[in-house]
Amino acid sequence: MNNTLESLKQQFVEPPEEFSPIPFWFWNDELSQEEIIRQIHDFHSKEVNGFVIHPRMGLSHETPYLSDAYMELVEVAVSEAAKLGMSIILYDEGMYPSGSACGKVVQQNSEFASRGLRMEEHPCGRDGIRISFDLAQGEEMVSVQAVLKLSDDTIAHERTINLDFDQDGVSFKEPEIGNWSVLFFIETYSKGTIRGVHQGQDDGEPDSPLAADLLNPKAVQAFISLTHEKYYAWLSKYFGSTIFAFFTDEPDLLGREHRHGLKPWTHRFIDEFLDCGNHEQNLPVLWFEAGEETRKIRSAYEMTVRNRLARTYYKQLADWCEGHNIGLTGHPAASDDIGLLEYFHIPGQDVVWRYIAPEQDKALTGVHSTMGKCSADSARHRNKRRNLNECFGVCGKESGWALNADNIKWYLDWLFVRGVNLISPHAFYYSIRDERRDERPPDVGPNNIWWPEYSKFSRYMKRMSWLMTDSVNTAEVAVLAHADYLPWQIAKPLYENQIEFNYLEEELLDGLSQLEDGEIRISKQRYKALLIENAEKVQSSSWTKIEAFVNQGGILIEISAEEGKKTKEIGQLSVNNANEIPELLMKLLDSAPLLQPASSSIRISCVKKEGINFYVIVNEGEISFEGMLRTELKGGTELWQPWTGTMERAHAETFAETYQNINFTIERRECLIIAIDPSQAGLGLHSSIQRKLMTEILNISESWRVQDAVVSYELPVLLSWTELEGMEHFSGKMTYEKLFEFTESLAYKGIMLDLGNAHEMVRVWINGIEIGVRMWKPYVFDITQVVRQGWNEIRVEVTNTLANRYDGQSLPSGLIGPVIVKGLLHMN
């Protein structure tokens, strides 16, 4: 037996604690040392081995953010975590977005408040115009220009005129007949805010803290001094051990609730704007359309702002963290801001507001569908070991507290198969007292129905995070990406045809990558094919390297440009739409479809860890899949179940010593791992393929006795308990019991209990023996070892959603069925 494989099996079953989920822990009420310690031990008992301390709305005014009283409680938490061997991420704000220290930066220096550029338009008459300036305190005139208006929102950009002005105003006379306007470009305070941690500090409230100017390096240094240095002064001995990172959260250049119509700006930014190749006459195009040049001008401005933010904010934070033996983690504001992840030691993103979800094709469409690979591919190409996702925030479908374990499992699988390997659930609540319960719900930890079973989730997250760490992704296809743009339309058919790819930033293609033997090589990745969705976005400097790649034999495929906008012919293959790419790629790479039969709902990632190949297979759809994986990888083959930690030999057939077909079934909400050990090739580990067949033996859907804590019911027919009088908004547990007679032969390969529909968490006993818990469909249990000939007692405990109680919902609840006893057969 391969010792490496045996070691990996042991680590898979009991993965190291470093791969624990690290949940956001909302400190949102009056805090006490005793309760902090109690909750930490509660986390630890559920195999949650770390947390992010997140000061949150509802924090008591008796414990001001960053006060000594607050820091004493942080020290208690960190000290207790250290005793238990837990890990901590410190959050750098109170509450979010990051960068203002809950308004303390601006309180220290009012000039550090967030700034923007506003445009003021003055239509002209034929006789010319004299306009006086009326600047508010703190405002500064940056530029004055005259533009020829072609419509309300369009200008003749080439006719724009820079105007000289003095401190009192500007004069202008039309050079020709037309609809002219004089535009003032004024640097001003954005008046943007953040969400604070105390009551009265939320959006639009009078005490909401002012956002800081993150493009001003001095303001950012003040932020670091107020927050990071404060934490270090209290907790320095834990840095680099218990404390392993600082989390920065979607910094917003203008702040929330900022003045309408502003563009991000800072003092003297016009100098950098011009030094980066922009022109002063381009400023009007930030507000008005100007034909074909509009996109390029705006992109150039946004790149200038983004590069400055990276330098003034992210780099300063990263340098501080590195100098104090911890990492920078968190995420920028946009889901595809891959360029801003450069300075993160642990790149991150966040699944929030159900922008991605199982329904309406949200898993694969739109900008948010790129966020999983945004952080994962940034880490892969920049040699970073971990990447993080802050997930589940406000992801309930019907209402806040309607998020269920079924969806949580779907989100986790969606992230893992895309390469995310550090999960930060949003959030565990210190308190759900009063309005705290409804602040960005739900609590996905100790205050929800699945908490007694949370160890199962913790173990699953550890196993999958372990597998996706220190392993090499084997994708041969790269999709060209840009600092602020990850193409999703070209990616969708790749996912649906199980063609693995990674997003490769254009900056990295130009810089860190090497070309060798017709491959793009960067870090541990090797790409034989490069796909381009929009050639217009590619910088002219990049085409030289792309052409060299093609000349070496590399595959270049692009979606055809619009008529009249043909790109340079360098040997690329053009397609009219993205759906043509999978078949073309498989032909060019001399590969066959991975799945038989085809399925658009199955996602596959192949990684190699310590010489063992692993296919990570995820079912993102709503029906089970049964079929075969065809692979050229050969060796001893096993099926690993990451939810249970169980393993079994795979049923596989080898053909002509060139490929093997591996038989598998994967249910909805399931992730399956196929492990292939090349050192066991040819050892006869394969067996004939067998198919499973389930046949109905007994329907036991009628005549159940149902009981809650007080009342007992007789239900002739199973139905949602919200249909019962007085139960419309009940959240809690109900127990279903009945006797059933089993008279069939026990000669089946297995006896299965299928509960049909249930909502949501189900625990089952047969003849007094507990046989398991399930939290999503299919609610199928193996009862082979406990069922007996004759009469059997079945008890089913169902816990429903808290949305009925907390959100006033009346969502389906309880055991609905049909409840079927089935026999399992194997057929060759």
Provide a brief overview of the structure.
By secondary structure, the chain is an alpha+beta fold. Helices cover 21% and strands 31% of the residues.
Task: Give me the secondary-structure topology.
Layout: H1 3-13, E1 24-27, H2 33-45, E2 50-55, H3 68-83, E3 87-91, E4 95-96, H4 104-108, E5 115-123, E6 129-132, E7 140-151, E8 154-155, E9 161-162, E10 169-172, E11 179-189, E12 195-196, H5 217-226, H6 228-235, E13 243-249, E14 263-264, H7 269-275, H8 293-323, E15 327-331, E16 348-352, H9 371-381, E17 388-393, H10 405-416, E18 422-425, E19 428-429, H11 454-467, E20 472-473, E21 477-481, H12 492-496, E22 501-505, H13 506-510, E23 514-516, E24 519-522, E25 525-527, E26 529-532, H14 540-551, E27 555-559, E28 573-575, H15 581-588, E29 595-596, E30 602-609, E31 612-619, E32 625-631, E33 636-641, E34 646-649, E35 651-655, E36 659-666, E37 671-677, E38 691-699, E39 702-707, E40 712-717, E41 733-742, E42 750-754, E43 757-759, E44 761-766, E45 769-774, E46 780-782, E47 790-799, H16 803-806, E48 814-817, E49 820-827
Parallel strand pairs: 1-2, 1-19, 2-3, 3-13, 13-15, 16-17, 17-18, 21-22, 21-26, 26-27, 27-28
Antiparallel strand pairs: 4-12, 5-11, 5-14, 6-10, 7-8, 7-9, 7-11, 20-30, 23-24, 24-25, 29-32, 30-31, 31-37, 32-36, 33-34, 33-37, 35-36, 38-49, 39-40, 39-41, 41-47, 42-46, 42-49, 43-48, 44-45, 44-47
Helix pairs in contact: 2-3, 5-8
If you had to describe this structure to a student in words, what would you say it looks like?
By secondary structure, this protein is an alpha+beta fold. It is 21% helix and 31% strand. It is built from 16 helices and 49 strands. The strands form twelve sheets. The protein has a six-stranded parallel sheet. Strands 5, 7, 8, 9, 11 and 14 form a six-stranded antiparallel sheet that branches. Strand 21 (477-481), helix 12 (492-496) and strand 22 form a beta-alpha-beta unit. The longest helix has 31 residues, at 293-323. The radius of gyration is 30 Å and the shape is globular. The two termini are 28 Å apart.
